[in-house]
Predict the 3D structure of the following.
Amino acid sequence: MTHPTDILVVSAHPDDAEFGAAGTVVRWTREGKGVVYLVCTGGEKGTTDPGIRPEELAAIREKEQRAAAYVLGVRETVFLGYPDQGLEDTPDFRKEIVSIIRQYRPHTVVTSDPYRRYIWHRDHRIIGQVILDAVYPYARDHLAYPDLLDKGLKPHKVRELYFWGAENANFRSDITDTFGQKVAALRCHESQVREMNKPDIEGWLREFCHNMAEGEDFELGEAFYRIEIPD
Ligand SMILES: [Zn+2]
């Protein structure tokens, strides 16, 4: 079964996409584009509270992510349930990602940058790399996984990639008008906002997005490394 969509946003953990791309996601959903979220792990290690069990936290974070996706107008949110801090660039994981890309057939895929050098979660690096490889060449080539063809998952060419967290951003999206929804979506991740210990989350985020708009004629932005994929 295929469910063609415009944009597939892939994150390692619940909340990554809100930090990285929520304002841009709202721009797309306002234009009527179909956006699907794919969340690879449960984020069950994202706490300093010794009293909470990982499976409890995963359930909380799934709810928080669904609430945030709702605020942004995301059409569907898919959870893969891999262990937090446990993503690996394996042939099986790559194949699963290729299957999903062929199923949703997105024009654009958005995820975390694999090449940010320091203090970057290993899961962020791994998913960025797996996406990059899955998009090109594995999702595109019919001989990559002949058995997927038997399941009706035909090759698919993704046209555009956006990576958040890039050190060398080459594209800045204007989120001045959608910043309020980015804040609202981030607030849905209550368990994580608590961990951040920033009483003025909106002010902190405003400064962050102001920096992301550096060199542009708009006030608030999200910065990406963007690639168009040639034929
Ligand atoms: Zn993360």
User: Anything to note?
Assistant: The pocket of zinc ion is lined by residues 12-13, 16, 121, 124 (CB under 6 Å).
